[in-house]
Amino acid sequence: MADLVSTLQELEHLGVGFVSLTEALDLTTPSGRAMAGLLAVFAQFEREILRERVRADLANNRQNGKRLGRPQTAALQTSQVRKLHRAGVSKSEIARRLQIGRTSVRRILAARP
Predict the structure, then answer these.
(1) Are 19 and 29 in contact (CB under 8 A)?
(2) Could you count the other beta carbons within 10 Å of the beta carbon of residue 26?
(3) Do 84 and 90 touch, CB atoms closer than 8 A?
(4) What is the rounded distance in angstroms from the CA atom of residue 37 to the CA atom of residue 84?
(5) Most CB contacts within 10 A, which of 54, 71, 82, 110?
(6) Per residue, what are the HEC states of the chain?
(7) What does the pLDDT read at residue 37?
(8) What SS3 state is found at 25?
(9) What is the dihedral of CA 46, 49, 50, 54, to 10 degrees?
């Protein structure tokens, strides 16, 4: 909201009036500026409510033991990656065969137990 206010003040200082034709919003009038302020307040409110919901959902998932983040697709194939590498298959070919990234193959092989 502070960015909106500073941008509007800067435009006013430069002598530029803002009129939105699609939203019928004229910021050169007091009622238009008041409407823009209200819209900014509601946008900030909506953003904060969304942030609260996301944080609550993440906390709930952690509490229920759900794993968060991307699935470990490459890590599930560690044994196959190592087996193919011992058989002399190149890292690029291992990645192609198992349909995982070459970087994932290199990471798995570098982290030998």
Answers:
(1) no
(2) 16
(3) no
(4) 62
(5) 82
(6) CHHHHHHHHHHHHCCCCCEECCCCEECCCHHHHHHHHHHHHHHHHHHHHHHHHHHHHHHHHHHCCCCCCCCCCCHHHHHHHHHHHHCCCCHHHHHHHHCCCHHHHHHHHHCCC
(7) 83
(8) strand
(9) 170
> What's the confidence (pLDDT) of residue 110?
93
3-state helix, strand, coil in the chain (%, to 5): 65, 5, 30
pLDDT (tens digit, 0 to 9) for every residue of the chain, 113 residues total?
Answer: 677 778 878 888 888 888 888 888 888 888 888 888 888 889 899 999 999 999 999 999 999 999 888 777 888 899 999 999 999 999 999 999 999 999 999 999 998 66
**CA atoms of 48 and 12, how far apart (whole Å):** 29
Question: What is each CA distance from 29 to 25, 33, 37, 59, in whole angstroms?
Answer: 9, 6, 12, 45
Cβ–Cβ < 8 Å for 8, 33: yes
